[in-house]
Amino acid sequence: MTAPIIGFIGAGNMATSLIGGLLQKNTKPEHIIASDPKPEQGAALHKQFQIRTVTDNAVLAAECDVLLLAVKPQVMQAVCRALPAERKPGQLVISIAAGISCDSLAAWLGEATPIVRCMPNTPSLRGQGVSGLYATAAVSDEQKELTENILNAVGISVWLEEENLIDAVTAVSGSGPAYFFYMIEAMIDAGEKLGLPRDTAERMALFTALGAADMAVNSDVDVAELRRRVCSPGGTTEQAINTFREEGLPQMVDNAMQAAANRAAEMTKELA
User: Fold this and answer.
1) Which of 30, 36, 60, 193 could form a disulfide with 11 if both were Cys (CB 3.0 to 4.6 A apart)?
2) H/E element holding 27?
3) C-alpha closest to that of 15 among 29, 31, 35
4) 101 neighbors 272 (Cβ within 8 angstroms)
5) Inter-residue contact 54 to 26 (CB < 8 Å)
C-alpha cells in the first residue's frame, strides 16, 4: 500500500513536533508537506527536516491524503473556506484546533469529509503528549489507525465515543500540564521558605515530579496505592496528605477541572 502524503496547514510548534515525531517513526520526508504563509517559516522547516514546504494551502490540499489543520481557532473558518472544494476523494482531515467542532469543520469543508477532532497537549513537544481523538461517521477504520499513527508519534492517544468528551479531555490532559507546573511552583516556594536555596528546591521538586510520574506510569498498582505506600502511619507524608485533605485539595481540583471543561464548552459555542 502506498504511504499517504500528510499535509500540515500551519507550521507552528505543534506541527513541528508532529513532523519531527513522524520522521523519527520512519515516515519519509517526501511524504510530508507543510504550508505556512511566511516563506521564512517554510524555509526553516525545510532546513530542519528536508520536507517540502509551500505558501499556498490550496496547492498542499490538492496533493495530500491527510490534511492536518494546525492553525489558530480564530482563523480556522477562513482557512477552511479558502480550500478548494474538489480535493482528493476521501481525504482525511485532522484538526488540532481547540474549540472547533466537527459540525463547524464539516460546514466549511463539506458534509461528507472524514474528520477527526484532536485535543493534544504541550508535552507533545517533548514526545510525551496525550491526545484525545473523536472521529465522525465518515472516518474509516483505516483512517482511524492512520490518525493514531500520526498522533502517537509524539505520545499516546485515546479515542472518544462522544465529541463533547473533548471538553473533559481538555480539563484533564489539555490544561493538565499547567496544574502540575503550578504544584511544582508551590513546592519550590515552600521549600525555599523551609530554608533551602531556591535552585536546590527547584531541582528537587522537578526531579521528584519526574520520578513520581515515572513510577505511576510504570507501576502495576494504581496511584492511590502508590500514595498509601509512601504514607507511613503517623509519619511526615501522612501529615502532609492530611493537611491537603483538610484544606480541601480534592474539591479544589474538582472545581478547577470543571471550570476548565465549562470554558472549553463555551469556546466551542463562541467559535461555531
Assistant:
1) 36
2) none
3) 35
4) yes
5) no
- The region, left, alpha or beta by phi > 0 then psi within -120 to 50, assigned to residue 48 is alpha
Could you identify the residue written with the cell 472521529?
135
Which amino acid is it at 49?
F
Cβ contacts of 131 within 8 Å, gap of 6 or more? 118, 119, 120, 121, 124, 151, 155, 156, 157, 158
Return the closest-CA partner of residue 86 out of 53, 109, 115: 109
Percent of the chain residues past pLDDT 70, beyond the cut: 100
Contacts of 200 (CB under 8 A, 6+ apart): 191
For residue 247, the surrounding DSSP H or E stretch is: none
Alpha-carbon distances of 179 from 174, 204, 212, rounded to whole Å: 10, 18, 15
Backbone φ and ψ for 5, nearest 5 degrees, come out as: -90, 125
Nearest to 118 by CA among 130, 134, 105, 104: 134
| The pLDDT of residue 1 | 54
Q: Hey, which residues does 111 pair with through a beta bridge?
A: none
- Per residue in 99-115, pLDDT (tens digit) is 999 999 999 999 999 99
The answer to whether residues 127 and 155 touch, using CB atoms and an 8 Å cutoff, is yes
Supply the DSSP string of 85-138, one letter for each residue.
S--STT-EEEE--TT--HHHHHHHH-TT--EEEEE--GGGGGT-EEEEEEE-TT
Q: Are residues 138 and 164 in contact, defined by beta-carbon separation less than 8 angstroms?
A: no
